[in-house]
Design goal:
Blueprint (H helix, E strand, L loop, with lengths): L2 E3 L1 H5 L4 H11 L6 E9 L2 E10 L3 E9 L11 E8 L6 E6 H20 L6 E5 L3 H13 L4 E5 L3 H10 L3 E2 L3 H7 L2 E4 L18 E4 L12 H6 L1 E4 L2 H4 L4 H9 L7 E3 L16 E4 L4 H16 L1
Parallel strand pairs: 1-6, 7-8, 7-10, 8-9, 10-11, 11-14, 12-13, 12-14
Antiparallel strand pairs: 2-3, 3-4, 4-5, 5-6
Helix pairs in contact: 2-3, 2-10, 3-4, 3-10
């Protein structure tokens, strides 16, 4: 009989550093086979993201996105992750969608930062003030001890609310905040860049999360040109996400400028304290599977 894991019960057993280790180990296994499918009814969407990793099992993350729900007092996004065992394909667990998404998204970025940012980094700028931004605050707090957080949002009231909810200083000027940070992590829904490459300073690490569609990006061409660029997966970013695809198609960067992903045998590392590193968090169903397996393992002990 399968286990059902809710958000609060599942999260009580998790820690961010343990998750990054699980993600690292997951990428030592054979590369995942992944597939996404979409069904639509007007503005409503059913999304299925599937992954199969030999040795780890199978997962299907199913989500419904109904934009009209909030007006009826119902959450816009609902869903669950079904986790199947590797040996026989039996259903092992049904896990809360929001739990897996939260820990997958912020954990992916934390692993990138632990490998690419300077270990002494302490000043963290969070661009965006929503749910993902709060998860990033939690993850980076675990990964970089004594971190000092600054938050910037297009809507000042949202930034103020974030600062009250989490320990952070509100930035009035984005350019000044970017220039002063050691790590810049961005989780916006922008289709036009909010981070300009001319603002970046030597030694910084840039973590880009928000863009997930072909028309979305958070950093301009100059930022990618000045940085050494890494992605979590070549397969789920190239040809899919505007952050890298738009500059590739325009010729602003070349394919060889994307140095490594988590599956690369080597090269996913900072070479000097002076260089700028940039990481594109693309997500992907294979990460949902790795996180689901970690959640189940910690839940069952």
């Amino acid at each position: 009989m399968s286990i059902q894991i809710g958000f609060d019960d599942g999260e009580a057993n998790l820690d961010w550093i343990g998750l990054t280790e699980a993600l690292r180990q997951g990428h030592t296994l054979p590369k995942a086979e992944i597939a996404d499918t979409f069904l639509y009814r007007g503005k409503d969407t059913l999304l299925n993201r599937s992954a199969w990793i030999d040795g780890l099992g199978l997962a299907v993350k199913c989500a419904t996105v109904f934009p009209g729900n909030p007006s009826a007092g119902v959450p816009m996004i609902n869903g669950a992750v079904s986790l199947f065992d590797d040996a026989h394909g039996r259903l092992e667990a049904i896990i809360d969608f929001h739990l897996i998404t939260k820990w997958k998204t912020a954990g992916d970025s934390l692993l990138g930062a632990l490998r690419l940012a300077r270990p002494e980094s302490r000043k963290v700028l969070i661009i965006g003030s929503g749910t993902v931004a709060r998860s990033l605050h939690d993850a980076y707090s675990a990964g970089f001890g004594d971190a000092e957080f600054t938050v910037w949002s297009r809507t000042r009231a949202n930034a103020d609310a974030f600062a009250q909810d989490r320990e952070a200083t509100v930035a009035n000027d984005l350019e000044a905040a970017v220039r002063d940070a050691d790590i810049i992590t961005s989780a916006t829904m922008s289709t036009t860049p909010v981070i300009k490459g001319e603002w970046l300073q030597s030694g910084q690490h840039v973590d880009l999360i928000g863009a997930y569609r072909p028309d979305m990006r958070e950093a301009d061409d100059v930022a990618l040109q000045r940085a050494r660029v890494f992605v979590d997966s070549f397969d789920t970013t190239i040809g899919h996400i505007g952050e890298v695809q738009i500059p590739l198609e325009s010729g602003a960067i070349e394919r060889s400028d994307l140095i490594a992903d988590y599956y690369s045998e080597d090269g996913f590392e900072r070479h000097s304290n002076d260089e700028i590193t940039l990481f594109k968090n693309g997500g992907g169903a294979h990460l949902d599977l790795m996180v689901s397996r970690y959640v189940l393992g910690r839940y069952t002990g």
